[in-house]
């Protein structure tokens, strides 16, 4: 599987004669599995047309900071959230200077400021400009900010001079972008993850739910994405931030989560049931607010369908990982769930502890499969998620 499978790359094209190589760079990135969106600066548009880049990238070319199509009119934030990496090739001397200064006067510079993923810059210009103190000082500053500079090559230049300043070869640029990512056995896999708490209505203002924050599930979503998977996230009530790179589907009740999971399960390679699903819903929940009248109130609860167990029963079942939230006889109960639900892995979560687990930033779990019983020591949920997936890859893929 290619390292850029499922990866979103923004290619910034600025004003240099070598902008004519941008379509080839788009192709090389696509050959490695990436989806590419292009931002064309005003200078870049003097050397290459929007139409060529649009045809090759198969995406709209972005040029305007004030994009009226963008949600809430914030195209630069949407693009920055979409990107797994930003590449500027060719980067003109002016673009390099703007980035060094942190200017925000066009779409590309705004996206760069809003970006928290790897940024790679491939300068291309006349050799004297490239060797100038100003340009070299700017590049040193960018390197000190962990920005990756893809060095230009030497050779005959468009202006007739011979020396350093020619844009690096498109295939070498694409390889350097790919080297920012790891390739794992999850790369290219489709993963469906449920997370957060479901909410069962009693009446329009009251409900039954639980303490799940969705943090463990989101740590798994983030790690699966980092490992190259394409992720669908079906989430209930959460107190954590979603990842814009997964396909996020919001639900409220257990029944809604059941329906969305069954609608999305075909073609998934892996199902991770991390949601704290309510086992019961209220029979005949009230359409109007229930009024108190001094008497006891009895609610009749009816069982919800078990999503994980039903996915495990599917003819073409994905590899299934469930969670067991336990407070007593924890190992025995978790082993029972592994067997009874028919899943491949159960992650045992002791939810009786005050310092980790439910609603906390840290967790300590046990990875259980038919052949393995492995404790994962207390750590941040992000680190625990990574460990879970590393063991999962070894055991199940
Ligand atoms: N689960 C599910 N659908 C349900 C209930 C649970 O998919 N209706 C999944 C959870 O996402 C989790 C696993 O089943 O992966 C175990 O959930 P847990 O709450 O620990 O156990 P339950 O099956 O609900 O059983 P009990 O409450 O009796 O412990």
Rg over CA atoms: 26 Å
Helix content: 25-40%
**What's the CATH topology name of the largest domain?**
Rossmann fold
Which consecutive residue ranges, at least 5 long each, have pLDDT under 50?
none
**Mind telling me the CATH class of the largest domain?**
Alpha Beta
CATH level-four homologous superfamily name of the largest domain: CoaB-like
Distance between the termini: 14 Å
Work out the helix count: 13
Strand order within the widest sheet? 12-11-8-13-16-17-18-19
The computed structural class is alpha/beta
CATH architecture of the largest domain: 3-Layer(aba) Sandwich
Q: What composes the largest sheet?
A: 8 strands, mixed
Backbone shape: elongated
Q: If you had to describe this structure to a student in words, what would you say it looks like?
A:
The structure is a single chain. This protein is of the alpha/beta class. The chain folds into 2 domains: 8-178, Rossmann fold, CATH 3.40.50.1950; 190-396, CoaB-like (Rossmann fold, 3-Layer(aba) Sandwich), CATH 3.40.50. Helices cover 31% and strands 24% of the residues. The protein is built from 13 helices and 19 strands. It has helices spanning 22-31, 50-57, 75-82, 93-101, 107-113, 127-131, 133-144, 170-178, 215-226, 254-264, 307-312, 330-341, 381-396; strands at residues 8-13, 35-40, 85-91, 119-123, 148-149, 153-156, 162-166, 190-195, 200-201, 207-208, 230-235, 247-250, 270-273, 280-282, 301-303, 319-326, 345-350, 362-369, 373-380. The strands form 5 sheets. It has an 8-stranded mixed beta sheet with strand order 12-11-8-13-16-17-18-19, sandwiched between helices. A 5-stranded parallel beta sheet has the order 2-1-3-4-5, with helices on both faces. It is elongated. The chain binds cytidine-5'-triphosphate. Residues 194, 254, 273, 275, 277, 279, 304, 306-308, 322-325, 337 line the site of cytidine-5'-triphosphate (CTP).
